[in-house]
């Protein structure tokens, strides 16, 4: 299991043999991981969530032992959970299945109504004017990532936004080119810009 955000974790933590057709739990064989009692899943999920990894499967929740390699651009820009079958340059197909997130909202559209959806990296161009940029500005200040030299033109994308957003990306654990000041979906979603 690959978890992308601030770190990765292996599915071997759940003691599931990755290349066997059955999982043994207390002497009982199960064809799929999801059919096992999944003891420890709640603790593992809580621990990973404490690192800020979002409860999303950018390539879809695994349901079978098959390859579905993640495109490189998505791998670099989308945080969340990835099966070995999704990881670029990997030939594993495990875990085959995975239990649901216990904390998944019953109404996924409620989060979409509360926060501004990610407008795409190309949206953030010098001089772009938008209430979403003002909302982002206010959230960056609230998150102590204020690297602005002025608070005029809050709704216009500029150099202060790039500096402040770089600070936000670094706060999330991004380094090097990954902290370039241009919002990506993962960092944008974590910022929780109020819907405008």
Automatic annotation (TrEMBL):
Matching InterPro entries: PG_bind_dom_phiBT1-type
Name listed for the protein in its UniProt record: Peptidoglycan-binding protein
């Amino acid at each position: 299991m690959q978890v992308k955000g601030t770190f990765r974790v292996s599915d071997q933590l759940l003691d599931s043999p990755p290349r066997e057709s059955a999982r043994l739990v207390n002497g009982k064989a199960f064809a799929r991981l999801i059919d096992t009692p999944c003891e420890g899943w709640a603790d593992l999920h809580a621990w990973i969530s404490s690192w800020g990894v979002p409860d999303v499967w950018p390539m879809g929740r695994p349901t079978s032992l098959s390859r579905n390699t993640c495109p490189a651009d998505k791998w670099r820009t989308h945080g969340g959970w990835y099966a070995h079958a999704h990881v670029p340059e990997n030939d594993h197909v495990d875990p085959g299945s995975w239990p649901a997130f216990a904390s998944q909202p019953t109404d996924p559209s409620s989060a979409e109504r509360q926060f501004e959806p990610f407008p795409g990296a190309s949206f953030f161009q010098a001089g772009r004017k938008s209430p979403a940029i003002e909302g982002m500005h206010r959230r960056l200040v609230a998150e102590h990532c204020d690297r602005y030299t002025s608070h005029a033109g809050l709704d216009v994308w500029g150099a202060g936004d790039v500096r402040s957003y770089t600070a936000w990306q670094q706060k999330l654990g991004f380094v090097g080119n990954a902290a370039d000041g241009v919002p990506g979906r993962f960092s944008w979603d974590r910022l929780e810009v109020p819907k405008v």
